[in-house]
Amino acid sequence: MSDTYDIDQTADTDAEPLGPLVLPLDAWHRARGGRMVDFAGYWMPVQFEGIIAEHLWTRASAGFFDVSHMGQLYVSGEAVEAALEAILPIDLSTLPLGGVRYSLLLNESGGILDDLMVTRWKSGFYLVVNGATKWDDIAHLRELLPDEVTLNHLDDSALFALQGPKAAEALEALVTGDQALSSLSFMRGAAFKLAGIDVWISRSGYTGEDGFEISVPAENAAEIADLICAQSQVKPVGLGARDSLRLEAGLPLYGHDMNANVDPVSADLLFGINKRRRTEGGFPGSEDILSLIAKGTATRRIGLLIEGRMAAREGAKVLFGETEVGTVTSGGFSPSLERPIAMAFVATEHAAPGTPLFIDVRGRKLAATVAPMPFIPHRYYRKGAA
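RE: above sequence
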């Protein structure tokens, strides 16, 4: 990292950094044996005790993830709802206070610039965008938002994820608020206090498990991380297991399973475009996207179960017989299923579950079968569910 760059300087300018920066928990991770790598412009832990062990711990108990590299934004001001609806394919009129919704940032041809989460706060909207794209997202939003709408980059906040079937049990012992943590269902959030510190907690995440995302003051990040990880149900987990968990959950990763040349219809992400907007349009790329909804797409994002033990990685060719019909976009070994799995884009006529395909891995043809996603059932805590 250049000596001329630090977090404070970047925060002042909102300029994209030139090299890896440190997050508030950098020393905390290193002290716990985190193996640090450069990811999205920051030093981040890829693992602590091992990817498979951390993956399985999260599926059975609760994993603590530092996702402070992601961009936390607050958009407010006059007519902010209409201003955001002109940019995002989302129906904000149906989003309640504290409600969280997945959406997409699109270009004029319907390609995906980023995927993001939008939450309604009392006087505006809280957005969480991907770390690798946040500088471009900030510039893009500032260019499109009208002058009366303000975008604040909440760079004085850290962001954690606590994921797994025992996440609620671990966190409930630590928080107080006007409502019980147990009152939050999937994709709902509220303000709480954790050890007397004001935090925002949403019941959300990207592992397929029940869990929470917790926005905290950066100055209190280590203190709060210590408290959470002192719970017997919790262990710190790195980027490696976060990736294998989201792959099992069938959740796409920006820059791999979607990019500016991929539309949300082909990517099977229409849940990021609310029903009213699919009829009315009025967002970037809407004409192209509505046409694809009506006519269908040439390719589809699919899941693949692979025979044997060899994993297929991004870029591997997908074959039907000897004919190339697609490309792997994410792949790896599933610790839960104990077999390799992958996501790919293939020609629509070969996208039906049960279709037999092959994957070319360095000249070796691996037998694979199109499978429904998620590979592992989601276990979100939904309101009214048993």
